[in-house]
Amino acid sequence: MSVERSALTQRFTEVRARSERLMAPLASEDFRAQSMPDVSPPYWNLGHTSWFFAANLLQPLGRMPDGFAGMDYALNSYYEGLGPRLDRARRGAVAQPTTDDVRRYRTAVDAAMLRCIAECCDDELARVRQVVTIGCEHEEQHQELFVTELLHIRWSAPEPLRRAYRERRAQSAGAGAAPPPLRAIGFDAATTTLGHQGPGLAEGGFCWDNELPAHAALVGDFALADRLITNAEWCAFVDDGGYRDPLLWLSNGWAFVQRERLDAPLYWQRDGARWRRFTLRGLVDVDPAAPVCHVSFYEAEAFARWFGEQRREWRGARLPREVEWEHAARQHGFDPTTANLLHDDLDRCAFDVEPAAPGDGLRQLAGTAWEWTQSHYEPYPGYRPFDGALMEYNGKFMDNQRVLRGGSFATPRGQARVAYRNFWSPGTRFQASSLRLCLDR
After folding, report:
1. Residue 171 domain-assigned?
2. Which of 34, 75, 183, 328 stands the most exposed, by the fewest C-beta atoms within 10 Å?
């Protein structure tokens, strides 16, 4: 087997195995639970990531094994060009396919994919490499989704029935300590480059189509906070009536707060005079030094306005634009290798936000929580989607979404890139999202 085919085989098997390890602690009943329409049951993630390879490679090449009728309908997500599909909100309401059916399907897809990589002709190899690479990156996105969706599923159970996903572990250094003062790090106006600047898919690297093309962009004088906003700072916002003051909120945000009756971040609950929060490791006290997490864009935007009114040195505080965030992150050496992102040794993964380590410069850029920006999710100048059915992957969602940057404790280590554009609707709270403040200078 050639070096290229061996590398593809290794990448494919490693990613597929990590998904299995993530789901290994689940009971059979866990695989069918769906807590809300935006959250898919684990069986579906297990099957959909297999369907992606089947629909985009095995079936077009005539290599998909027979005997799996209905899987295309059950496991398609939103690809209109690939046929009808089960409604997203009903994924947890059907008995078919069974979890055992999905596992057999996954095993068959794995075997067919390994044969395809090993046996495809040289003329097909470029397409095989492209789909394997995209499919592995896609599965890693679903590994992150699995982590954040399972947290919502476990939390949605009645309180006496809530169960942790991972064992409790020792607190991280700095837990419970007073958070360090928030410092602003200044950046001068400049012409910068926004977008992926490394090798693309054709050159053996990878980025999503929405990260391209790299292009010149202007930034004005601005300052960025050196760390994420902490729970202690968020508690002050709560105690000052931040969730009850309509003057702090965008109109849609205030309607969202009223409709959902929000008074704290998702997973927080009062316990007498203290706040506690539900995590993948169970119910814990809110750590004042840790970053606030599971807040929507609306909450982040309102907090920024409130904070700017409270602190004279932060007057006019706002969320950063994505070009400002990326420019600052490049200037400060965005380095995901030093962060506790999701990786193969699951026993050493954080599975929760952790306080900022001491240091200078920008901290917590990757591996803690996704950072809301004020930027709408839009195409870059000259944007071109992937070819074929994959053109539906990103571009069609460039409407009514906000961009998040960085990466979280649930992001697979290989996915954290300085140009990576995550995006969610502004009311999303179940993702591991936080905020970093920005100032015009």
Report:
1. no
2. 183
